[in-house]
Amino acid sequence: MRGLQLASDTVLRLATQAHAAVARGDAASAELARMSLEKQLELATRLIDELLFDGTDHHTVH
C-alpha cells in the first residue's frame, strides 16, 4: 500500500510539473514531464492491479 501512495504522490507531482511547463510555454520540459508521467502511471496501474487482483491475470482498464 505504501508503494501505491508513493506512486500516486509522484503522479501528482509530475502532472503539476507538466501543467506548469505548458503554462510557461516550455515544450521541452512539458514533454519530459509527460513521458515521466506516462511511466509513473503505468507503475501505479500495476500496483493497483496487484492490490485488487492479488497477482491474477485481471488488469485495470486504462
From TrEMBL:
Which domain of life does the protein's organism represent?
Answer: Bacteria
Descriptive protein name: Uncharacterized protein
To which species is this protein native? Paraburkholderia phymatum
